[in-house]
Design brief:
This protein is α/β, with parallel strands linked by helices. Helices cover 37% and strands 15% of the residues. The protein has a seven-stranded mixed beta sheet with strand order 2-10-9-8-7-3-6, sandwiched between helices. It is globular, with a radius of gyration of 21 Å. It binds pyridoxal-5'-phosphate. Pyridoxal-5'-phosphate (PLP) binds next to helix 5.
Length: 408
């Protein structure tokens, strides 16, 4: 008889943003006359860089002629994009990579969800808390998390990030085979300095762990001494996979393109102790389950690295970071305890008067018609916080802050 993967039944019914959407929908139905401003879901609002539009339009024209038509492309991505990434993202920071260590994809969410395909389910997993929910849920789906008790998965090693440790996690107390790190962090907006990140690399090398380093927000780093790539750290090629995305860098949330770096040195063992290259395994996985990112999209992504593309991307990032600064300064002046927003497009705000995350969410929705994201939706240590994104339009960010001010 046909059976399902019962791990899926362990997942909670709703996804955080679906819960929020339901509440907002109900509010809008009750108060159709009120305008609601969203600082909730982390989606961008500014259009694609003109250089990307132009490159994609050119690629569409190419597809219209048999002489320049492109069918299936390489599963790993076209060399023109891999080369541009290698030169502009890595060589420019003193990191040497090979083209075959770069895998182009349709975004970092797919890659963080799928990477578990090549890792044994008996591996122990350490995850910072609060965290981007995909890391946990994809491990639940593959059966790596144990049972749900006391609002936690029994086999996940949660690494709390809270006010006491300035949202910087401690190294795992029990050895972990797989460690998820995300910097700049979603949702707390914190970053790791080089010395701090080096501790994780050293730990992973000592315990033969794998770090899955999600750098989806690296383009938002403003301080020159904060690493953009984990490969800027010594030894990282032996212990880390890096995930990156064009979504927040260049407004590609609806276009879909990202990439994953798997160094050739990176290995894991079979049950017999044989060392296998993760690069080769991932290549095998992609060739079987993925038919490549579209040619048009990859031409669009390549254009980010032209001189006009770079300027346009910088302008958009500056726009969002100006939103972050405006909101952070205003909230702090109102007496809120705010983290992030300096090297990341997220503000992590302590709820006032010991309100729970959802109580403060309801309060802001009902009294100010501002949507934020309840911190508890990112994990147990997120309770008592909300996340605000800086991806809104400038006028909306200013209006939302004004409404919150009027509440105070
Ligand atoms: N990683 C983190 C930490 C994110 O916050 C997001 C999106 O919000 C992603 C990955 C997914 O990025 P993509 O749009 O490339 O799938």
């Amino acid at each position: 008889m046909l059976q399902i993967n019962e791990n899926f039944l362990k997942l909670s019914d709703n996804y955080l943003f679906a819960d929020i959407a339901k509440k907002v929908h109900a509010f809008r139905n009750q108060h159709p006359e009120l305008s609601v401003i969203s600082l909730g879901i982390g989606d961008v609002t500014q259009p694609l860089p003109a250089a990307c539009i132009e490159a994609m339009q050119k690629a569409v024209t190419e597809m219209g002629s048999s002489a320049s038509f492109h069918g299936y492309g390489p599963e790993q991505g076209y060399d023109f994009l891999r080369g541009a990434i290698l030169k502009n993202e890595y060589e420019s920071r003193g990191v040497q990579l090979e083209l075959n260590e770069i895998f182009i994809s349709d975004g970092a969410k797919s890659d963080c969800g799928n990477i578990g395909d090549i890792l044994g389910i008996q591996n122990t997993v350490a995850i910072t808390d609060p965290v981007y929910p995909v890391y946990i849920d994809s491990n639940v789906m593959s059966g790596r998390t144990g049972v749900w008790e006391n609002r936690r998965w029994s086999r996940i090693n949660y690494l709390p990030c809270n006010h006491e440790n300035r949202f910087i996690p401690s190294l795992p107390a029990q050895p972990a085979d797989i460690i998820y790190l995300c910097y700049p962090n979603n949702p707390t907006g914190t970053v790791l300095a080089k010395e701090e990140l080096q501790k994780w690399v050293d730990y992973a090398l000592e315990h033969q762990s794998l770090i899955l380093y999600d750098a989806a927000y690296e383009a938002y780093i403003q301080n020159a001494d904060i690493p953009h790539s984990i490969y800027e750290l010594e030894g990282a090629r032996q212990c880390a996979i890096e995930l990156r995305s064009f979504s927040k860098t260049a407004g590609f949330t609806g276009v879909r393109c990202g990439y994953t770096i798997i160094p050739q040195e990176l290995t894991a063992t079979t049950s017999c102790g044989e060392k296998i290259k993760l690069n080769a395994l991932w290549n095998r996985r992609q060739c079987t389950k993925f038919n490549g990112t579209s040619y048009i999209t990859q031409r669009g992504a390549e254009a980010i690295y032209t001189s006009e593309g770079k300027q346009q991307v910088r302008k958009t990032i500056d726009y969002y970071m100006a939103n972050a600064r405006t909101m952070k300064t205003a909230l702090q002046q109102m007496g809120y305890d705010v983290t992030g927003g300096e090297n990341a497009p997220y503000l992590w705000v302590k709820t006032p008067d010991n309100l729970s995350s959802w109580q403060f969410f309801d309060h802001l929705l009902n009294q100010a018609q501002v949507i934020v994201t309840p911190g508890v939706g990112f994990g147990p240590s997120g309770e008592g916080y909300v996340r605000l994104t800086a991806f809104g339009k400038q006028e909306d960010c200013i209006a939302a802050i004004q409404r919150i001010k009027e509440l105070v």
